[in-house]
Design a protein that fits this description.
about 250 residues, TIM Barrel, 8 strands, binds phosphoenolpyruvate
């Protein structure tokens, strides 16, 4: 059975007091959550060590939003995969549309980052998704397939168990617009076909949905047969809303 998973992308939000308060609330409200659903908190990098400590004693795991594409060296300001794993990260996001568009991360950078994550004990949450223009022109699936083929090209046959795909239509991220459950299901099913083409073992890779997931739409999205959970931005900054989304998975 595929892992079900809900991940919280805090983006560039939160200080230590916020992390303490939110993690306290989440640990209480998620204590009864079904163990088959993995909850991952992805805070900004300066909070990783704190959030890992705060998550102790719960089943919540912690992830990084970004990493360097290099192993180590003279790269001022960068943080390597090994360093992130050392402070408790067990997952790392790669290919998020904000990294692709605001920081010009191309397929080569994305593929290198995937390889760096998989060289550690961390799992990668690989993000892909089409723009509004691409959806309207009917090329959503082709765009996603191309991102998967380019970004995951260095995944070896033994590493697929450490890959999670997040389908995040760019037009739905932070906009309040969400893909309909049917549209999400259609792309997720297509992603499974593409993953098989890339050599992933049949049906083993979790595929989660991101893009304005909230309490009011989570249950219907997560009920789709190929939607294994969610990547949640805005709504993950509210403990009650995020806990409700986790309970819907
Ligand atoms: C995201 O940042 O990956 C995301 C899906 O954000 P939001 O839930 O705010 O759309």
């Amino acid at each position: 059975m595929r892992q079900r998973l809900v991940a919280a992308n805090w983006k560039m939000h939160g200080d230590r007091a916020f992390a303490r308060q939110l993690m306290g609330q989440l640990k209480t409200s998620l204590s009864a959550l079904d163990k088959e659903a993995q909850v991952v908190i992805i805070p900004p990098a300066q909070l990783l060590a704190d959030v890992s400590d705060l998550a102790k004693g719960s089943s919540i795991e912690v992830g990084a939003q970004n990493l360097a594409q290099w192993e180590s060296g003279a790269f001022t300001g960068e943080i390597s995969a090994e360093m992130l794993a050392d402070v408790g990260a067990r997952y790392a996001l790669v290919g998020h549309s904000e990294r692709r568009s605001l920081f010009a991360e191309n397929d080569d950078v994305v593929a290198a980052k995937v390889a760096r994550v998989l060289a550690t004990e961390m799992k990668v949450i690989f993000c892909c998704g089409e723009s509004l223009a691409q959806r309207e022109s009917g090329s959503a699936q082709a765009v996603v397939d191309a991102q998967l083929a380019a970004g995951l090209r260095e995944v070896s046959s033994g590493q697929w168990g450490k890959v999670i795909v997040a389908y995040e239509p760019v037009w739905a991220i932070g906009t309040g617009k969400t893909a309909s459950p049917e549209d999400a299901q259609e792309i997720h099913a297509g992603i499974r076909v593409a993953l098989k083409r890339l050599g992933a073992p049949e049906d083993d890779v979790p595929v989660i949905y991101g893009g304005s997931v909230k309490e009011s739409n989570a249950r219907e999205l997560f009920a789709q047969p190929d939607v294994d959970g969610g990547l949640v931005g805005g709504a993950s900054l509210d403990a009650q809303a995020f806990a409700a989304i986790c309970r819907a998975v």
